[in-house]
Amino acid sequence: MTPAATVRTVSPLALTAIGIFLIFGACMSSLAGMTLVVRGTAFDRVWALNPDAYRTLAPFRGIVGPLFLLLSVTMAIASAGWFKRRSWGWALAVGLISTQVVGDLVNLVRGEWLRSGVGITIAGALLFYLLRPNVRAAFHTPMKPPA
To answer: Do 100 and 123 contact (CB within 8 A), yes or no?
Structure first.
């Protein structure tokens, strides 16, 4: 058996799930950003799910709100590239998840053991999956010969 024959293909279902995850992240960060930028809407009630985060972010809403909106756009662009199997979509997804891992590590150092431990486990596993050679190969954009 040749080495090429032993290469495993990537599950289309797993790739679709990650793309959906990116869309979900874009929606949630958009919701968070909008509720911080535009006050007094019906969507403000969503902060009842995490009132501590709201108390922390609300004083900085003028800065944090637009940053959440920027994150939302970035995740939406990443999902578009992901579903089109573009190498830049893969790179953007890796960058976003890597940033999450770093943030969780910072929170771990700050003493938030449970939340950061769960975050590191989930984001770390996702990053491990994204960095697998067969996943990366699914996003290989071959060079086209000049016309």
So the answer is: yes
